[in-house]
Amino acid sequence: MQAPDKAPKTPKKRSLPLQVQDASVFCIQEMILHHPACVADYAEVVASKFFEVSGRAGPDRRLTVGLARALDHLLASIEPLRALEILLPQVSQNFDLLCAALRRLRPEQILEHLNVIVAPIVAAAETDSAETRKAAIFSLVDLYLIVGEDVMSYFRQELSPSQLKLVTLYAERQQCDSKGATVEAD
């Protein structure tokens, strides 16, 4: 018996039509909303598939928005610390979701895990992409607004002087804006 000349062909991954992808994401999103326990044990796997599809979603805004919404629902349905574990490796593409996950944590929880949380954000703040750097700085501002002055000593160690100046400047601006909105509401 002769060995085959060629290795067996592996089937190529074909993209599903966008309508099918949209419907699939919507279906999973609805399942997460109405039956979160069904995906709780598999949140990391579901999130990784969302990240994978999002990475190749291309210019289809509807699919991208649907994926972000579904991922947000997934992360909101699990423990906030677990949500952070899922998000932090993907932080440079998901700052909005990271900030939402941080807001679900108590300040003490953030302080307890500060080194794990801040390291990927600081790394993102040092990339070549201006958009990514800006989003990273605003994430650090959110951290400051959630935790308060307790986080500044850590920021002084980890951030460059210019990054620290941006964080304090934007934090002060947001605090002034929120105080102004409160005064206007009275």
Automatic annotation (TrEMBL):
Top-level lineage group: Eukaryota
Q: Which InterPro entries match?
A: ARM-like (IPR011989), ARM-type_fold (IPR016024)
For this entry, the protein name equals CLASP protein
Please report the organism this UniProt entry assigns to the protein: Symbiodinium necroappetens
